[in-house]
Amino acid sequence: MWIPTEHEKYGVVIAGFRGTVPHGLSLEIGDTVQILEKCDGWYRGFALKNPNLKGIFPSNYIHLKNACVKNKGQFEMVVPTEDSVITEMTSTLRDWGTMWKQLYVRNEGDLFHRLWHIMNEILDLRRQVLVGHLTHDRMKDVKRHITARLDWGNEQLGLDLVPRKEYAMVDPEEISITELYRLMEHRHRKKDTPVQVSSHHLFVQMKSLMCSNLGEELEVIFSLFDSKENRPISERFFLKLNRNGLPKCPEKPERHCSLFVDLGTSELRKDIYITVHIIRIGRMGAGEKKNACNVQYRRPFGCAVLSIADLLAGDTKDDLILKVYMCNTESDWYQIHESIIKKLNARYNLTGSNAGLAVSLQLLHGDIEQIRREYTSMFTHGLSITRKLGFSNIIMPGEMRNDLYITIERGEFEKGGKSVARNVEVSMFIVDSTGQILKDFISFGSGEPLATEFHSFVLYHNNSPRWAELLKLPVPVDKFRGAHLRFEFRHCSTKEKGEKKLFGFSFVPLMQENGRTLPDGTHELIVHKCEENISLQDVSRYLKFPFSKGHVLGNNHPAVKTTKESFWITSFLCSTKLTQNGDMLDLLKWRAHPEKIAGCLSKLKEIDGSEIVKFLQDTLDTLFGILDENSQKYGSQVFDCLVHIINLLQDSKFHHFKPVMDTYIESHFAGALAYRDLIKVFKWHVDRITEMERQTLIQEVLKAQEYIFKYIVQSRKLFSLATGGQNEEEFCCCIQELLMSVRFFLSQETKGATALSQAQAVFLSSFPAVYAELLKLFDMREVANLVRDTLGSLPIITNADESLQAVKLQCIGKIVESQLYASPESRYILLPVVLHHLHVHLQEQKDLIMCARILSNIFCFIKKNSSEKSILEEIDIIVNSLLDILLRTILEITSRPQSAGSATRLQFQDVTGEFVSCLLSLLRQMTDRHYQQLLDRFKMRDELRDFLLQIFTVFRILLRPEMFPKDWTVMRLVANNVIITTVLYLSDALRKNFLNESFDYKIWDSYFYLAVIFINQLCLQLEMFTPSKKKKVLEKYGDMRVTMGCEIFSMWQNLGEHKVHFIPALIGPFLEVTLIPQSDLRNVMIPIFHDMMDWEQRRSGNFKQVEAKLIDKLDSLMSEGKGDETYRELFNSIIPLFGPYPSLLKKIERETWRESGVSLIATVTRLMERLLDYRDCMKMGDMDGKKIGCTVSLLNFYKTELNKEEMYIRYIHKLHDLHLKAQNFTEAAYTLLLYDELLEWSDRPLREFLNYPMQTEWQRKEYLHLTIIQNFDRGKCWENGIILCRKIAEQYESYYDYRNLSKMRMMEASFYDKIMDQQRLEPEFFRVGFYGKKFPFFLRNKEFVCRGHDYERLEAFQQRMLNEFPHAIAMQHANQPDETIFQAEAQYLQIYAVTPIPENQEVLQREGIPDNIKSFYKVNHIWRFRYDRPFHKGMKDKDNEFKSLWVERTTLILVQSLPGISRWFEVEKREVVEMSPLENAIEVLENKNQQLRTLISQCQARQMQNINPLTMCLNGVIDAAVNGGVSRYQEAFFVKEYILNHPEDAEKITCLRELMLEQAQILEFGLAVHEKFVPQDMRPLHKKLVDQFFVMKSSLGIQEFAACIQASPVHFPNGSPRVPRNSVPVSMSPDGARVIPRRSPLSYPAVNRYSSSSLSSQASAEVSNITGQSESSDEVFNMQRVMYNHIGDGALPRSDPNLSGPEKAVNSTPSSWSLDSGKEARNVSECGKLMSPPVPPRPMQTASPARHITSVSPSPAGRSPMKGTVQSFTPSPVDYHSSGLISNSPVLSGSYSSGISSLSRCSTSETSGFETQINDHTVSISNCNASEEPVRKESKTPPPYSVYERTLRRPVPLPHSLSIPIPSDPPALPPKPLLVRPNNLENSSKRPEQVPRPRPLPRKVSQL
To answer: Which residue has the higher pLDDT, 552 or 85?
Structure first.
């Protein structure tokens, strides 16, 4: 039996469970589960990752964890009771895990690896927390690290900012909104703003001195030097180097590493330098001999300097090499560093050894403790600390120092009877009063141990040496008294003995007799003469002498002889124990000299502050001692001294001594009676504030009032303690009187910044500290009343001093933050006066930042759900006082213009957020009673109206995305919850007060727009959230969108007849709501549309407005990005927008306007389908084809179905931009032509639109024309460009704008040149079928023909399409798919190549037109395409497959011609015909004959770079025929059985026979041409071909051509093929014969790419349509293959554009499978002009292939019109009736090896590598007759053919004397525009109307 669990509620899966049992729940390790019931070792529950799926699982697979249950019962929620940091870590890592994998998919490798390390680190820290063995401090440190890493990861992944308090997440419902805002802001600022560091440190490591000739030990001295003040600012870092220039003690890092500490920010400037002085230890002269002297001297070596500014950029300088300089004269050594800094080059130069100092420098930031933590290894290894000179910027209490700095400056010495100056060395000792030398109290610098004596360096022969060496003497205080410094002066000899001879000494005591230490400053000491043998041990002998010249002058010592020799030192004492100030000593010893008390008190203010704080406690004891003993006499002076000391501690330098003062007051102060005197004197000062002219003293007193009150309170406490609380009332009265005096002076009104207002400001700034002290003696209510009265006494004037107003607010702010305000009873007293002052400031919009801070603090005390009476009363007060002004303030500050990037903008954002959080806090605390009272307060409807408009406007502002930072989702959700609660309250007021007669459109409109904005917020789109985040939001707030949607519906229903006011204005906003993929919301909102349609129908009889607005809004919503990938689910459900809601359709069907309503719904649905497809495509990367196709679909929809002119034009330009991006320049031109056609050449003004300025229609059309021409030029579609050039030239000409006319004509001429000179590639065309429901709507189950890119073949196109549709499956057959494919939930692509069918053959058939011109018409303006599929009908004959080989020919007719506005167009119509085996054979032979003619012509005209193509073709045909090629046709169709069974094919059989004979004639002529051009190494092959040719003729039964004439419809009387009987004989050789291409009824230009001699069938012929590749079933002739590979693309011939028209031969057209053999031709009489078809000349009957040929005059004959193939050409390149080149079928292609079709799997191209035209080497035919050939037309089915209709068969060339002249018509290209296309298919059943397809008449675009 299943029992609900009580305690087993939450657990973690520790073993995977597959859930294979009935009702089993599949679980993975690590899943968390909530347990509902249990039964016999099984649990029933659900995994938290999918709470909707419940099931059972084994209990031993679950590790139970403690949890608490909320909302017990059906909707209970389980919360684990573990540490909140652990809970957050677990949920966060789960979310990260999914996103981490996506990073890998998106190839964001850097973040992927960084996040992986962070996740591992967090898991490790999590283990440490779970173990629970950490100390409290360590646990805090670990949690700090965890939260820091969680925040970093969330920021990197774009997740929400988590508000925390003490490392734990906070529940926004448990704290006030203002507190939540502060937590969020604190974390946001912590993330954004770096912490300002005020303390810096310089790490120095000495590495080596690089020098070529050292040989001596060195001393290196580092220090910091201020070049601005010209003094050192740090102690010295002193280290020694060995003879190699390396540190002497490398094993002791503290000896060569140092940290210069406590550098302030002000000292990080460019005029602070690191100076390095180097002293060598050795001989006097650097170049002296080694044995010259054994005594070692300190001698100057060099100096280096580096500005600290060089470190600021990088902070670290490793292995820095400093140049070492030496001064030119030793006497300047003391200032060499200054000379280098000032770059006085004359005073120094590089050292002779070119030395360099290698150091490492690093600048560290932060306090010293932080540095110790972050650079632990640095301190562990050891380093010395180098202090700043003197005290640091901040003196810390308890800091013990007693350092005396001595600088040995200089000396003045006499020669001493010598001819040269002395070499003086100074030795210094510290000697006590007994004459003993104190040991180890001299510091040369950090890094070196303390020494007993010091020896200066020696300057050579200098009687006025200057040393400037700084020493520190850390002498203890107890040894200071009686000690003195002794300086001994010796002359250092440079002789061999190297002796040092004493010649004098000086001394100076460290402390004077009166207890003062040696004063700071420079002292001139007397040099006392002495000799070496005089003992200085007896100090009493010389201590009685004067020590300085100042001392001598002051005491007039007669015993001392005046001397010229002097010695100067500078002293500086840094001590916390000793003083040099006599006044301080006198004050401390006041009892010894009572008469000096007044003087000492008056001099206290003159004593240096550092001296006072050193003896702070002693000084305070002295002052209060004097006050206790003689308060009447010295009370005022003591008060002034106390004020001075208190204010001294306000200085930042001594700020840290405040705790010392506090400690003194608490523990050491003993003045129990002092409070009386302090109150009396203080009141005396306050009473005279308004009277006294000098305010300085008063302000000083007021600044010190905090500590004065501390002394008063402590004194009173001591007195009460001693007396048992006597005189309590007296004390209270004194305090009351004092505060009354204060209130009086505060109440004085002043205008502007006066001394009185300054005093008031000073008092207010420290007033909060005063009442904090009074709380120690009085209760809360008493103090609260005192504070209220004090604040109430302040004058409320708007023109008062602004600084005073600011200080007043700061005072109020401190009150609100104080302990006093925290108490409810005192808060109730203080709140009204605080709100009163805030109201005034907010009204004036002044000091908003401070006001916001105060308000935030006020609301911090008001937690959510505080139902206490005091809280509710406070809310009442705040609502009445501040709600209105708060709303106005938010409106005001959000409407101010913001200056981007400035500090003001940051402040503006801060203050806005503060006020918003205050407003939200207030609204969240308001109850029903508060709202009711608020609404009842408005007596007038207008007041209520203004209030509602105001609050709705504020709410709309709060919903702006920029109101809070992007990652503040928590804050946004809280704000939305408050807003929707408030709106629900206020909607009642809206219904009650603003409906029916009092209806107000503005307020209702504001309400609806607020609701729509609310629902559309990004932060409420739960579909975008992770499952865990979505679950949390739903549990806490539910789906607020649905709540607001229901409210909208309710309010809409209440509107009644007023609904018409909101139609169509609200259609767009409501439609936007329906796009949200939330089914409940859409269920609520969509019925509103029925209402709108109904009311609009009632009002105006239709709902055109609804329709127009709906359509416009749909498009704009899609443009704004609605329906992006986050709405993926919406794509499948939005298409039947109104479908899932039958209630709406049923409603519409019941209405009288049912038909128009259903039509509207259908239209909107179709538009939405296309818009969503468009949005889907636009989001893709480089899928340009899909984007273009989708845009075309949408563009056509707007034009044809919606008639939305402006939207149509917008999408024209979007399509144009897409084409330009894809470099489809021709398509871009056609696209822009659509807009151009809507305009006329008029002067009508057009408004500004898109990127077009305001201009006339003529100007815009001109601009469009020029742009289109440019695009046609870039797309090499120059023929179309010429047409437009002519049009715009006509306009220029009509306006006599000859300048632009000239330019246009030149452009037109340049296009002609480009047509003739530049090569154009002919594209291939591909048919693509898109099958399956997964394709976008505009592609689904449709077929298109696509124009390929340059050089793009079938394989490349196939791959491109599969890349654009990566989920598509390529179909491997060309058959039409069945219905299952159409309805499949998949994507199927069917692709194969198709052949274009040019609409107009006139240009292609005309003689003399260059190939460059024809190439355009082959592939442009194409409507129709074809492809062939071979199949066998009936039983297949194994011996001869051609008997049953049929061809299914499919013709595809497009909706528009290619090229056009797209690279692909949909197939509008399919026509399928079947070609019999005989028709198939005829077409194959026609194609092969045409190919032979072409190659022979090219070879004769020498347009081929080599003869290999002709060789291959001849070999393929002849060899195949010999081996049974053409004979297979004879076996199939010339047998008696076939002729009897198919009497209707008699004409076709005759035609086939004639073509076979014709092929033999062409071959014979071709062999003759081949013999002339064949190279020597190919002669054997040629001989073989000749031999095989005669075998072939034999196989055909041809012995002599004359014998065949009778059976042929064409006579060959002279052996020359195609020569009419009446021609005049003329000799023709292979050189001179002109080969003219012949056009058969089945012939169209195309050439095979590969060849085969196979006659076998191809089993997979259909597949070749798809793949474009196949294999031959027979062996291919090897040499043919070699030659074909040899010629490659390099053999492509080029036409010569320099030839004249008559010199050019007609382009020979390659053969192809023809689609148009069934077309009937027009009668000759219908043709406007006769043209002679070009055919090759025939050889004589008995002549060899090489013989000369004589032509004779033929009988009058014309080509049968039924065999004609010429079609009328497209009249305009821009007309959409298309014609163009036909490509070979990818399946059935002709073969080089035979004239019979091979079923080899050949991939074909649209042009042959050998196609060209005859060049000027051909012999032109002269003396021609003026006869013309009828224009030939295609017929759909082969007409009956008679062997006797010779006169209607084919015309043949005339002899020279009767030859037809070259037509002198104007050039065919480009034709004049706007010609009407002739009807060229009268009897065609395929296309009954061949009139041009006119465009829709241009519609005028109004003002666009």
So the answer is: 85
